[in-house]
What does this fold into?
Amino acid sequence: MENASRRSVVGLSALAFAVCFGALTALRELQAAPPTSVQSLVVDVALLLLVAAIAYFVYRGGGAIESWILALGPSLAFAFNLFIPVSAMESIMWVLYPLGSGVLISVLLGGMGFGVGYAGRTLRKAQGVVESS
It folds into this structure.
């Protein structure tokens, strides 16, 4: 069961990567970029929603590795979309920089979501123990 659950988490993360990367690339290619302040607001809201989704997933019983995997797809999409327009490198570093950044971002976001969700799950269990006493 855990293997099937992890496969669905990987699939969801891959779908999030495809949607985020596709949307960000389309906006860049159509030159429909809003002002920097609006872009920052959109990214901040997207990251908060991602952390909230991971926290809810963990609250419902998800684990630390799954929370990191969920954060990996959108984090890689953000990182690759940021590095592609400014990259003039024709080497393996072109892939390693955004890959490393995306993994670091996903560890941070997944960790934050896991912490919030785990705290909520622990408080829910503690409240259930107190009510049953």
